Amino acid sequence: MLKTIKIVAACVLAMLLLAACGTGGREANLSNGNGAGGNQEENNAPATEEKKADDAEKDNTETDTDEEQSAEKEDSSQKIRLLEMNITYEVNKETKEDTAFLKSSDNQDYSLYILPEFELTAEEPNKDVLYLKENDRHFMRIEILPSETNMDDAVATMKEQLTAVNSEVTQLEAKDSQWLENAHIYQAEKDGEIVTAYLLKKDDLLLKLTVFTTKDENYLDPFLKMAETIEKK
């Protein structure tokens, strides 16, 4: 009987020990699951957010770069001028249209479109002459003045030069020419000769134009139409 009691007690003790081991293992597993696993997620969260921020910044940088490259291409395309263009002009109340060709000055920093009847040549440093081939009495002097030129002094000089044609110098206003709206325009006449001078800022150029023509054959309009196409190289 005593032996039987000992055996039962031993079995109960063994069962208690097994139960205790099972509880410890489960607690350990629960601790590992809630502790190590939870901490791992928390540790990974800042890294994930940082990666997202880096990716967003990279995307923004690539977008900015693409936009800059696109803008550079657009600027480059705007600087390209076609080799020819059609110009409509008037001579003695007769309207004409012809193809003008792009020409760069060898003497100054600009280009323009020139009608077939005309030719551009250097007159002296910083001065070109655009003239009618069949009659060079009709011509336009083109001068690019230094950017620091005083406008009041330049206007005074221009008016004084015109007094060599006629002491009476008339100030004119631009008509139907938007690009000449802010120009200083003066004219002098003598014996059928007409000299008209223009001083204006066009894009990055301070431009002085002096057109020589006549009342009988007035070529002022084609000269101005070609001058309107002047652009800095």
UniProtKB/TrEMBL annotation:
Skewed-composition ranges (Low complexity): 32-45
Coiled coil: none
This protein's UniProt keywords: Signal
Biased composition (Basic and acidic residues): 48-61, 70-79
Signal peptide boundaries: 1-19
PROSITE patterns: PROKAR_LIPOPROTEIN
Region (Disordered): 32-79
Highest taxon of the lineage: Bacteria
Protein name, entry field: Lipoprotein
Organism per entry: Lederbergia citri
